[in-house]
Amino acid sequence: MHLTMAFGGPPEGEVELSPRDHAGLAALKEFQKNEPGYSAIQSTRPQTLGYGLADSPVAQVARVR
After folding, report:
1. How far is it, in rounded angstroms, from Cα 55 to Cα 12?
2. Measured by CB atoms within 10 angstroms of the end CB, which terminus of the chain is less buried, N or C?
3. How distant is the alpha carbon of residue 48 from its chain centre?
4. SUPFAM superfamilies under this entry (predicted)?
């Protein structure tokens, strides 16, 4: 099984979050708001990106390195 972006639920009871935790949650929220394109493509038609990478001369060069 291959999982990406697997998230767990919050622990039971009250948990105090650190400033680093709050910053991480804010960054995640910002990413989900402004950059959902890749995730949307991967969730509906994952092979679409593969075709572009396989057919692109740039991707071919990058794979050789």
Report:
1. 48
2. N
3. 16
4. alpha/beta-Hydrolases
Q: How many residues does the chain have?
A: 65
Side chain identity, residue 38: Y
Residue type, 12: E
SS (H, E, C) the chain: CCCCCCCCCCCCCCCCCCHHHHHHHHHHHHHHHHCCHHHHHHHHCCHHHHHHHHHCHHHHHHHHC
The two three-digit tokens of residue 3, written as one number: 């999982």
